[in-house]
Amino acid sequence: MSTPSRRHAECLTVLAISFQVFSGVGSQGCRVDSFPVQDHFDTDKYLGKWYEMKWYSEVYFDESELFQDYTHEYIRKKGGNLTVLHTGRDPINLVDCFQRQSTLYLTETPGKFMIDEKNQGNLSDFLVIRTDYSNYSVAYGCTTQQQDGTCLKARAWVFSRKTTLADDLSQEADDQLEKLCLNLTSFLVTRQTNDCTDDIKRSTATRARLTIHLMCFTILVFLLQLTLLLP
């Protein structure tokens, strides 16, 4: 007959083994390489402009600190990889829009990319988890993986082809996000109220005019100096 202390020890052993088993199962389910991407992903259909509806952040930001009118635009490069144009408004300066560039590198698996954020030479995962190409997209990224393959620093986005997203599509996106071991309460909403397209065009045109004026001024100075050197 077993003593109470022995039964207590056996109970603790069973609990410990159960914890290890279930922890292992949960860990395997949250491994980055276990997350499926969109079936039969078509990169060409994914190209173009996407409006950010919300994004995952492990750190709290006040609404006044969040980027607004933020978009991603995917453009095919000659070598097959993609240029990503990030456009939006910084809350510090809501008058003018900013534009940055990143690069998405193709992998052997369609829908799985490696992204070089702001083209700084640091590569990380970028997965298109689900998209219907014409309405919404769920994307996932991981900048740092742990030894067990789970993500230490995760990122995720919900994109829309328009500045809004229907409730049923938002629910579909949330269903996908829950499968990525992410807490839905950690997502921050991106306000879409004033598209940056026209601002970027004006800014580009202004820079082009300034460049032309600077070139003309440089040529005039050169000709003037040349004239002074003539006998």
Describe the structure concisely.
With 231 residues, this protein is an alpha+beta fold.
The shape is: elongated
The whole-number mean of residue pLDDT values reads 84
Radius of gyration: 25 Å
The largest sheet has its strands arranged as 1-2-3-4-5-6-7-8
Unreliable residue stretches: 4-26
Residue share in β-strands: 25-35%
Number of separate strands: 9
| Number of helical elements | 4
Helix content: 25-40%
N- to C-terminal separation? Answer: 120 Å
Describe the main β-sheet briefly.
8 strands, antiparallel, barrel
Provide the succession of SSEs.
HHEEEEEEEEHEH
Structural class: alpha+beta
What does this structure look like?
The longest helix is centred in the C-terminal third of the chain and has 33 residues, at 197-229. Mean pLDDT is 84; it is low at 4-26. The chain contains 4 helices and 9 strands. The chain is an alpha+beta fold and 231 residues long. The chain starts with a helix and ends with a helix. It has an 8-stranded antiparallel beta barrel. It has helices spanning 4-29, 43-46, 167-178, 197-229; strands at residues 48-56, 68-76, 82-90, 93-106, 112-116, 123-131, 136-145, 151-160, 187-189.
SSE layout and pairing:
Elements: H1 4-29, H2 43-46, E1 48-56, E2 68-76, E3 82-90, E4 93-106, E5 112-116, E6 123-131, E7 136-145, E8 151-160, H3 167-178, E9 187-189, H4 197-229
Antiparallel strand pairs: 1-2, 1-8, 1-9, 2-3, 3-4, 4-5, 5-6, 6-7, 7-8
